[in-house]
Amino acid sequence: MTRKFWLVALPCLVLTVLLPFVSALVIPGVVVAPAAWAAVNRAVSPPLGDVAAFSKNSASAVILLLLPGVTWSDLVSPAAASAWEWLWPQAVVGLMNSRSGSGFDPAAGYMTLGAGARALRLPPGSGTVYQREESLAGMTAEEWYRLWTGRDPAEGAILFPGIEAVQSVHRRADHPVTPGALGKWLRAQGLSVAAFGNADLPEGYWRPVALVVMDERGVIPRGRVDAGILSSDHDQPGGRGLDELQLGSLVAAELQAGTDLIAVEWSDLERLERGAGGDGQLFAPGRQESLRWHELARAGKWARMWWERWQVAAGRPLTLVVLSPYPGREAIRRGELLTPVIVYREGGQPGLLVSPTTRWRGIVANLDVAPSLARILAGDREMTAVTGRRWTEVRDRQSASDPEWAVREIRNLAQRTAGVSYTRPGVLRGYVLAQIITSLSLLVLLLAASSRRLPRGRLLNVAGRLLALFVVTLVIVPAALPLTTSLHSRGVGATLAGALGGSLLAALVLLLVVRRPYRAVLLVAAAVTAGLIADVLTGSTFMRRSVLGYDPAVGARYYGIGNEYMGVLVGASTLVGTAGLDWLARSVSRARPAQGIAGLRGALLLPASVGIVTTLVIALPFWGANFGGALTAAAALAVALLGAREEAANTSPGPQSPSPAPPRGWSLSGRHWVWALLALVAVVAGLAVIDTLQPISVRSHVGLLVGAIREDGQAVLWQTIDRKLATNIKIMRYSIWTWGFAIGLVTLTLLFLRPTPGFHRLLADRPYLARGMMASAIASIVAFAANDSGVVCAATTLLFPASALLLLGLESVRSQAAFTIR
Asked: Is the pTM of this model over 0.90?
């Protein structure tokens, strides 16, 4: 072997040494107890900090204070901050994804809290909840309830007559959800619940607080939601607001009576949100915000004033949980989609919330509220029939000495995530548009030049250099986006300009060093591959800061590797492995021409090592946790390796050949296609086994799906497939990524099916790269089929391969001789 070969092969051998370690995790996991597997999982997972579950053995009464339409910036605003600062030294805080099955619909947001799954909006005509004896259109709420449900609401003080319409809608949902799951569980455990709140306006009734704690029958045993808890207030639409004194006394009476969970909605905030008109323009600029801050401060002072009396009335541990069920209209426009969550108990320590749903310090999901309240209320008795999972506390060493530490962490996190949410659509749209324009321009230039419709003179040279610079710039952008976090506050234009400008500067420097755009793309691909793998192994810190990563406000993914960067990683690693194999194969054939194919066996370690490590990092639930990405990476690895093996068997490298044999390119024998399919089946089975061996509290999507199939049958699987297909079709219809995917696929197929003579020689000199291009195309199709945002990851999978192929085509047009690897 040459020295050049060992310089590349040795790192690959080091990587393969890691494989027995991973195998030691996977193979024993099939037979060891889940507890032992969980210990291994904790050992290899990125650290979150000091994690402590909420008290498991001591039950506590809970006051759930709901602040509709409030964001973290509202809580720390100058007008409201002083009213809530009494909580911070002993509070655990976090941000909550408040997205429901109907987006940020308020009613669905309330219902999601109690269902532990993404609920849908209320069906038209279902109404709201009423006090049992309230009169409605000549009948009491009890009579309407009995008429519509056919049941007698035996012990209910508050009733939801339209509950059957709500249950009917959710029975047809594409995912399992039971409105009233929390109330049902509380009733089964013998725990009592009460609800207080009234957001009525002159034009209609509205009492959404009961949607959180009602049971599956639409019944709440105790509480008040009628107009009797209101008093005159001319700062409220309709002239009536909450009676603070009466409300505090009612809560104290419930605690004294032994009620376990008391849900209180600060309904004046809801009234302000609904009373602003459809577009919020009834208020003068700044007026609604001023009134909201006033009400928020009023709620904080009210809770502070009554807290000690509530503790005495409870006579047992008491926990205050404050959260906002949905963001307000103005907050959505600003991209502030995550709402605050505060858990306060006397004698507690400051910390951050985290849950297995998100695996993100400081962020939980609204799905987690129901099981988390169940843990606080009942200790070891767990609520399992929900999608969400219990949150835990995370503390750093400085939390004991710095009471404001957690608040600062959440403030910074709120600003960063809001910036990502606000700038993400515009930045990605601009980036993909730049890709489309550049790729189409270069493709047209190549076709025109190869057909001799464009003179190969100075114009071609200048245009080619300029477009090559743009291509290299655009492949650098995914690496540059995590560094633009500070620009998010300045808007979409500043972020996009910063990413493109920084990438352009880096591309200029890189081209000055390596001089050839194709080699520059290979170096960028190698750097991106190493960087993304390192980032996933250390907790995806940089990926979370990028608009090309995942948006926690949308709630599609919180941890591991997102679909966008997954596609980038698969495409970049496949390009690096196969292009490097071409270089190593030429080195081997020059060093030992007599060995022929035998000399290539060691060289195959390069694509094998890169592909296996990439697949493991994407697939394993404690790292990438991306099931669709695992199939994509496995498809790329299998097709690339089998194609390389087939190519080596049909090619005899060495100087005795007068010219390189043309690459087989897109072909693969039927036997090898079978092996590729078996590799995908093995990945699916392996991931299912690994993830289901973990405790249910830390399983990823795959393990939860397998568990749901075991409990509810195959209908869950078909629901999941149907939901993913529907999401894919929707994104295809409206996303600019569809055009990016189409351009990338057209580039690969067109340049392979109609190569110019010069380009044909370049491909013949790089037979393994041609196989890698085929593997990338197959992987993009698998990504499209296996992910719910398939067109997005399919497009990013083709970013590096299509860019490299375009630059090779440009080299073939600008050079009359075949390119020789040095």
From this structure: no
